TrEMBL record:
One Gene Ontology molecular-function label: phosphoric diester hydrolase activity
Transmembrane domains' residue ranges: none
Pfam families referenced in this protein's UniProt entry, alphabetically: GDPD
GO biological processes: lipid metabolic process
PROSITE patterns noted in UniProt: GP_PDE
SUPFAM superfamilies registered for this protein in UniProt: PLC-like phosphodiesterases
Upper taxonomic lineage: Bacteria, Bacillati, Bacillota, Bacilli, Bacillales
Residue ranges occupied by any GP-PDE domain in the UniProt entry: 3-240
InterPro entries named among the record's database cross-references: GP_PDE_dom, PLC-like_Pdiesterase_TIM-brl
Protein name: Glycerophosphoryl diester phosphodiesterase
Matches recorded under Gene3D superfamilies: Phosphatidylinositol (PI) phosphodiesterase (3.20.20.190)
Length: 243
């Protein structure tokens, strides 16, 4: 049982999430074949890799990501909060992460937005990924159905994925309605029946965020096609690669 290992925001268990340090640490593990990252837009329209809508938690800056231009954002420290060894890590551009991952890792790129927070986010990401010739190396995911529809309208060749974390509703039906080929779902919401149905329909499924060996084993026993998204790819390695 070797369910695919997805590094959540890079190797974020040991390095500051969504930084080049976390990406490089994930790349250094030969069994990591996918990585999940989060993308937003700076005020001047640069796609950047950061999770929160504000800068406060993961940098020494303050305020909303959408209210800062790229160059001032680059001067922020996005690593010290995790440890002195990471002092000076920066908020990376999506382009930097794409350049590191190209030909080495597939990417689940979550478009972080709410409502009309980021007009043009879909186009900026589509254009950048396309310019790198990486369309087949990524899946673009979102909680927002409108985002997923706009991606398909702008370029139907892109793989899209729904992120689902509701106690109610039918994720399999929603994925089909949105013409998605991928479901990103909280591991607590994934059942054997749903996993089997998705696999039969050819839908890739990723369970997040799974850091304990016990849960990794449970998901692997549930279905071999469940991708395991984890902050701790080293735990995945210990769990599935033991002699």
């Amino acid at each position: 049982m070797q369910n695919i290992c997805v590094a959540h925001r890079g190797f974020s268990g040991k390095a500051p999430e969504n930084t080049l340090a976390a990406v490089r640490m994930a790349l250094a593990l030969p069994f990591v074949s996918w990585m999940e990252i989060d993308v937003q837009l700076t005020r001047d329209g640069v796609p950047v890799v950061i999770h929160d809508f504000t800068l406060d938690r993961t940098t020494n800056g303050h305020g909303k990501v959408k209210n800062m231009d790229f160059e001032p954002m680059r001067r922020l420290d996005a690593g010290s909060w995790k440890g002195r060894a990471f002092r000076g890590e920066k908020v990376p551009s999506l382009e930097e992460v794409l350049d590191l991952a190209s030909g080495r890792l597939k990417l689940n790129i979550e478009l972080k937005t709410s409502g009309d927070m980021y007009p043009g986010l879909e186009k900026a990401v589509i254009d950048l990924v396309s310019s790198k010739g990486m369309r087949d190396e990524v899946v673009l995911t979102s909680f927002d159905a409108g985002v997923l529809k706009r991606i398909k309208e702008q370029d139907p060749r892109f793989h899209t994925g729904l992120i689902f974390d509701s106690r109610l509703g039918d994720p399999a039906r929603k994925v089909k309605e949105l013409d998605c080929s991928f479901l990103s779902i909280s591991f607590a919401r994934l059942s054997p029946g749903l996993a089997r149905l998705l696999a039969e329909r050819g839908i890739k499924m990723m369970a997040w965020t799974v850091d304990k060996a016990k849960e990794m084993h449970r998901l692997a026993e549930m279905h071999s096609e469940i991708m395991i998204c984890t902050n701790r790819p080293d735990v995945w390695g210990d769990t599935f690669l033991k002699a």
